[in-house]
Write a structure and sequence with these properties.
Elements (H helix, E strand, L loop, with lengths): L4 H5 L15 E5 L2 E7 L5 E7 L7 E6 L1 E4 L2 E6 L7 E7 L2 E2 L2 E2 L13 E6 L2 E5 L22 E4 L1 H5 L13 H4 L2 H10 L3 E4 L9 H5 L23 H6 L1 H17 L3 E6 L16 H9 L23 H17 L4 E4 L2 H4 L12 H8 L7 E4 L19 E3 L1 H21 L7 H7 L15 E3 L9 H4 L35 H20 L3 E5 L30 H19 L19 E6 L8 H5 L5 E8 L8 E7 L5 E4 L8 E7 L11 E2 L4 E4 L3 E8 L4
Parallel strand pairs: 12-13, 12-19, 13-14, 14-15, 15-16, 16-17, 17-18, 18-19
Antiparallel strand pairs: 1-2, 2-6, 3-4, 3-7, 5-6, 7-11, 8-9, 10-11, 20-21, 21-22, 22-27, 23-26, 24-25, 24-27
Length: 699
């Protein structure tokens, strides 16, 4: 690359936490507004103010002043609340620079947007005032957190108890009917698929489809206007933001946290040649990862990758997080393709990346839950377990092992009369994945999940061997090909009651494992009543009844939801199920659960019991080490074979009896629970789980 005189003249960047980055965007004061923009390579920036009703009518153009360090500023009374504006940026031409002084660009720190056409946007000045009424964040402890991942529109679009005017909206999610469902289900934290302003890719529009999930961000500060009620959309950006904040306040009043799925790894500007809307026209060289010739380095699979090795891009992300966590009172973030954010100037991942450390060390983000999707599609992109202190991570190793144990292993055993693996690997995941996360980080570093928005639903996981994605317009080429699913003998819908009963039990086993494992459980919206997407495991482009939750349920679906309620209750009431730290062989660790493992004979498991494929049954005793709660001990029987077995309950010091709490063998959770004595023989159903509370002198 040949450097120009302009490149050499640029002042060195001020550093990620330098106060000169403070106050970017529009700041209102004394009846005027000041706009500050950063562009290290620009020759000039102009502010364009538009008419209040006509987005094509520019009523004033003002130059920004270069104030040094790549910062540009202008102060004017035209930047009043509700004003619509854009910026034009001029600069040198050459590899990596894509300036066009004719392009109308969104200012990156815009708190509100208005849209004129498919790629025709304007920024809107927003005051952002809101009366929180003294409502504080719930601050749910990590070990008590139960996450419910869902699509904001899809959760309420068809809810019969929510008024039609609120269907699919921020206000709809905060409706008492939804709050009641979440609370009775035992949910503590709602994790929303992207609600930053996003758009649909031209390719999908040409197919008559849309980007339903929202992983195509236009702006990191503005809430997606389409999720507001019609009345608030008509009123404008201020009302849209007010509705979002109102949703957060009502959920907080109910004790529910709000976690946002955020997409900082790429933007909707896609690859070079696609419509520019913001960062590409402001300072392409600084905001996107590129080769020396200007070609993009795409580690996201979406056309571009935000270059967080530059202070400008990293600070943009950090400021966005601060805004949502403080001005909007959001409780946590799930970072899409978070490995991209941790890539350095050489494009290699490092857990000590300045942005990753700033996110968890920033006092302005104290107490905010930070969850990484710890991979991207670039070289060295799979980083599960590699993020540092303060981070929790989606644990795909957990997902795969649990699916294998209850589904693909059982499928294999039907054909080979023995499963391919035993129970050791499954037990490691059940106990908190200590083989993936360091002792310093502990089990709460693992976000456990069996399903997510991306992939089969729980129902489809036990009903389809292969994906059925033809409706996506890609000839079934998209979506994961390896799902570790099992249709239990028939592909898709069936009237065979034996198959249906086995599928229902498989779902109960998967849910039981999820909610009884050490770590942070994440339930996918609708899995509590077994929603289906007809075998589509990549329904990102369907804004339709295929992806909206149906609230018209049959009795077996209600029974499944009752199982979820029973499991979240058991988790809440038994701290041994939710340790905060890993136990140590020689030390007493407050907050840890001491784990002992027994075979079907009630004796301590030997090496063969762990490693042999013939051994698919264990008894797991977890004993809490009191820290803030009372002493507690549980026993969990796991049986991963389609033949029934008999288990001798273990003799454990201090245990006088075992009280049954939950069993996956039951179609509907029973209210009258049995009590057993140590040494008693228990009949265990094929492929099932049984949870007990151990009671005795020590407890």
């Amino acid at each position: 690359m040949v450097l120009t005189e302009h490149d050499l003249a640029i002042a060195p960047p001020p550093g990620l936490l330098d106060p000169r980055w403070d106050g970017l965007g529009v700041t209102l004061h004394d009846g005027v507004g000041t706009l500050r923009v950063w562009s290290g390579h620009a020759d000039g920036i102009r502010l364009v103010i538009f008419d209040d009703t006509d987005l094509d009518w520019a009523i004033e153009t003002l130059p920004l002043v270069d104030v040094g360090g790549g910062f540009w500023a202008v102060t004017t009374s035209l930047l009043r609340p509700g004003a619509r504006y854009a910026i034009r940026v001029d600069g040198p031409h050459g590899p990596g620079n894509l300036f066009n002084p004719l392009s109308l660009l969104l200012e990156p720190y815009s708190r509100g947007l208005v849209r004129g056409g498919a790629n025709d946007w304007r920024s809107v000045v927003v005051e952002g005032g809101f009366d929180w009424g003294g409502v504080a964040k719930p601050a749910v402890p990590m070990d008590r957190t139960v996450i419910y991942e869902g699509h904001l529109k899809g959760m309420t679009k068809r809810h019969p108890l929510i008024p039609p005017a609120l269907h699919g909206t921020y206000a709809g999610l905060a409706h008492p009917a939804m709050i009641e469902h979440l609370r009775t289900l035992g949910i503590t934290s709602v994790q929303l698929l992207p609600v930053h302003a996003f758009t649909t890719e031209p390719r999908l529009l040409n197919l008559g489809l849309s980007n339903y999930w929202g992983y195509n961000t236009v702006n990191f500060f503005s809430p997606h206007a389409a999720y507001a009620t019609k009345a608030n959309r008509r009123e404008g950006a201020e009302a849209v933001l007010r509705e979002f904040k109102g949703m957060v306040r009502l959920l907080h009043e109910a004790g529910l946290e709000v976690i946002l799925d955020v997409v900082y790894n790429h933007t909707a500007e896609a690859d070079i040649g696609e419509p520019r809307s913001s960062l590409r026209g402001i300072d392409n060289r600084s905001y996107y990862r590129q080769h020396h010739d200007g070609a993009y380095i795409d580690v996201t699979g979406c056309g571009n990758s935000v270059n967080t090795s530059t202070d400008a891009a990293a600070r943009l992300v950090l400021d966005s997080l601060r805004y949502w966590a403080n001005d909007c009172q959001v409780d946590g973030f799930r970072f899409d393709l978070a490995a991209t954010l941790g890539r350095d100037a050489d494009h290699a991942f490092t857990p000590e990346h300045p942005l990753l450390r700033a996110i968890v060390d920033d006092p302005a983000l104290a107490g905010v839950k930070m969850i990484a999707e710890p991979w991207d599609v670039g070289m060295g992109g799979w980083q599960t377990g590699a993020f540092g202190d303060g981070w929790s991570e989606w644990n795909d190793r957990y997902r795969d092992r649990v699916r294998n144990f209850w589904l693909s292993d059982v499928d294999y055993a039907r054909r080979a009369d023995v499963a391919p693996t035993g129970i050791g690997g499954f037990a490691a995941r059940l106990a908190g994945s200590a083989n993936t996360f360091s002792a310093e980080r502990g089990p709460l570093a693992s976000v456990n999940f069996v399903t997510a928005h991306d992939g089969f639903t729980l129902h489809d996981l036990v009903s389809y061997d292969v994906k059925h994605n033809l409706a996506n317009g890609e000839h079934d080429r998209d979506g994961a090909g390896t799902n570790r699913s099992f249709n239990h003998g028939i592909e898709g819908p069936t009237d065979d009651e034996a198959v249906l009963a086995t599928r229902r039990k498989a779902m109960r086993n998967l849910l039981g494992t999820l909610l009884l494992s050490a770590g942070l459980p994440m339930l996918t919206a609708g899995d509590e009543f077994a929603r289906t997407q007809d075998g589509n495991n990549n329904a990102y482009c369907h804004d339709s009844a295929l992806t909206w939750l149906s609230w018209e349920t049959e009795s077996w679906q209600e029974h499944l939801a009752e199982h979820v309620r029973a499991l979240t209750t058991a988790r809440r009431e038994n701290p041994a199920l939710r340790p905060t730290r890993f136990a140590h062989e020689d030390l007493q660790v407050p907050g840890a659960s001491v784990m002992d493992w027994y075979g079907v004979d009630g004796e301590t498991m030997g090496i063969a019991d762990w490693t042999s494929a013939a051994h698919r049954t264990l008894q797991y005793v977890a004993t809490s080490t009191p820290h803030e709660e009372e002493f507690n001990r549980i026993l969990l029987i796991v049986h991963g074979d389609e033949r029934p077995t008999r288990v001798v309950l273990p003799q454990v010091d201090g245990v006088e009896r075992y009280e049954s709490l939950w069993s996956s063998a039951e179609e509907q959770p029973q209210t009258d629970r049995a009590v057993y004595e140590p040494g008693q023989v228990v009949e265990v159903d094929p492929t099932s789980m049984h949870l007990f509370r151990a009671v005795g002198d020590a407890s």
